[in-house]
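Re: beginner question about structure tokens

> Can someone show what the tokenized structure looks like for a real chain? I only ever see the sequence side.

Sure, here's an example I had lying around. Input first:
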Amino acid sequence: MDGAGSLLIVALIIALVGMAVRVFRHAHAAKSTHLPETLRLYRKGDSSIEYAWFYEFAPNLHVDRGQVGELAERRAVPIAEWTTIAAEIDAARAEGFRELADSEWQFVEIVYAVEADFASGEELNKRNRVTDILDEHFALTGQGHWIDSSSGGGTMENGFLVVDGLIAEKSIKEVLSGTEFDDYIAIRVDDRSA
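And the corresponding structure tokens:
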């Protein structure tokens, strides 16, 4: 086997180990007694989109509220006060906040060139760091979350489901500007559900 083939095998092993670690962490995370997964509520206005996210991370329930694309106002409430949060969720729904249908999410992808057909181990590490940075930023600003990554044909990509592709594209440019990660070759926005 030549050097390029060996590098490809190493890159694939690194990617598989990374996926296995994520699956293990998810499977062994403490299970919620009130919110089995993040409840993401949105209210679209004429010129902005508000969000209210509710999630449990023991020993607290967490509430993030704000305008999509801006840092959340965050607060933690002891799990024992679940009835207060349940009432807040009901009030938010009464005020017009709702979960988005699958068809309302938009897909945003950031694309990087790689030196070979598939990303090397070092390039996959870069992709994973970009994923972590953007996934955290999108969570902190109510925009969405990571959904997939890929590599092949001389590129590697990170894909995210977001509420508004244009806001997400602007955020990506701002967050990565002036960093080692601002050498992407494209940001693709698709308003069809991923």
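Each token stands for a local structural state, so reading them left to right follows the chain. The mean pLDDT is 87.
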